[in-house]
What does this fold into?
Amino acid sequence: VNIEDESHSDFSLLRDLLLCQHTQHLIDLTTTTHYENYRCDKLTRLAGGDHGAEVTNKNPLAALEDESKDHLQRFCNKEKEIEEQFNTKVEEKRKALETMKLEHKDFIDRENNKLDLERAKILSKREKFDKEKKECETRSFDSMYKLSKSMESHGGKKRGLFSLGSINFGRL
It folds into this structure.
């Protein structure tokens, strides 16, 4: 069945009647009824809040101004709250940094004390070493002196020296 065929269907006639002849009436009805209802509903909400709230006879511009003041007040309160949170966090970080500085200073002091003790140990070992070195040099010098005296007493002969041509062996 073809709906466009007028012998079988009235659809094309109804469509022409509604769309062509009543179009302006539909436009006017939409503007006056639906749009005005929507606009009235929005202004009522703006002036008095939600649908359930009482409708006040407040000027919409005054309602906008009141809403703007409320928004500004909420914004200022939120800003103060955020600033307080920021200051609290900054103070916590500052305290943590101070604690870290004190711990670091204590660590450095402990390490310096350890170094001072090590330095003192090393200096005492060095003094002991220097003392032993001096004693050893003194003993060695005494034994060399005694050896030279004994060699002089044997007639000044140098023992352990012999030469083979131009090559000398022993002490000179």
Notes: The chain has a mean pLDDT of 82. The longest helix spans residues 60-153. The chain is about 75% helix and 5% strand.
